[in-house]
Amino acid sequence: MRQTTITVLSLLVAAIALTGCGGDMVLLNSAGPVAEGQSNLMMTAIYVMLLVVVPSILMALWFGWKYRESNKDADYQPHWAHSTAIEIVVWGVPIIIIAYLAYLTWWGSHEYDPYKPRATSPDQEMTIQVIAEQFKWVFIYPEQNIATVNEVRFPENQEIAFRVTSNFTMNSFFIPKLAGQIYAMAGMQTQLHLSATETGVYRGFSSNYSGYGFSQMRFLVHSVTAPEFEQWVQAIKSGQGNAVVVDDKGTTAVQKGLLDQAEFKSLRDGNRAQFQIDAMVKTARTEAEKKAAAIAQAEGPYPHHPHPVTYYSSVEAGLFDSVINHYMSNYHGDDHHAGHAVDTHSAPSHQPEAVAHDTATPVTGE
């Protein structure tokens, strides 16, 4: 018994120490109504399950102590076989808990649906288009006609409608302090609605492995006041975004002009190591192999650091829609036109998997 107690205490101390080393318990320290609701939902489910777990652990320890060999006063009933009261407890309590958890799951799935708008009308939402480019994130503000790379800003208490797609393999867009993750898939548009109830800087990243440079797909989310947001937008549109400090190290952004198809194409990073590229060039024999090697050389090796925060003072019209339609034209043929609705049940051949909610929505040029 003494050894068991020491083991349990050691595990508790180790768990507390590891939690401390992990820093901010971001999933339990939310900064938005969606993430807060999801956190409360998770904790409620844990507390309800502990109604079974804790008594079971205590009874297991108590039984072991009560019926130890040295306790001669414990009841010995070798012919005992049934107890109606025990049957009611061991079956009834779990059934009640499972039924409650089922209701909680059903309610939470609808209440915190990422596709559910948080504003009472579309006019109250700010739309931000998100493109998962190869090992970086591109954010387009269609209403402000600006774009950013690896940074997103919006006013506090402003309802945000993210429209998410991918320009390479399947990825996952995640801002844990503000909402749950949502998949980004080529040829599809998924949605995520959220808001931040306070100003601050929050971490965002890809939570789905997508290649060698996956670990560099990190970005910062700035929740600012409305006047600060307007000043930021004006600074970018006037070409003065390079004066904006983007992190606590004093780093400033890179300011550029128009984000058009050519500039967007230049943002793509390589997805191979340098030795792999060298091997492709060395062993290329056929025209197809030489072409693939030339493309790999042009893209370069995969990044070892996140792409610097970059601002664009204007954006080519329809850029976000063209990224989606590019994959749909490959899927349906070259005669597919830009205004065609995206297939709601299909995905590009290299992305066969999707969760139930991550289905495509029509491209409307919003």
Which CATH architecture of the domain at 122-269 and 307-332 is right? Sandwich
Number of helices: 8
The chain-level structural class is: alpha+beta
Low-confidence stretches: 335-360
- Within the largest sheet, what's the order of strands? 8-5-1-2-3-12-11
CATH H-tier superfamily of the domain at 122-269 and 307-332: Cupredoxins -  blue copper proteins
Based on CA atoms alone, the radius of gyration comes out at 27 Å
CATH topology heading of the domain at 122-269 and 307-332: Immunoglobulin-like
Give the class-level CATH name of the domain at 122-269 and 307-332. Mainly Beta
Strand content: 15-25%
Largest sheet: 7 strands, mixed
Strands, count? 12
SSE run: HHHEEEEEEEEEEHEHHHEH
| Mean pLDDT reading | 85
Helix content: 25-40%
Distance between the termini: 66 Å
Shape, please?
elongated
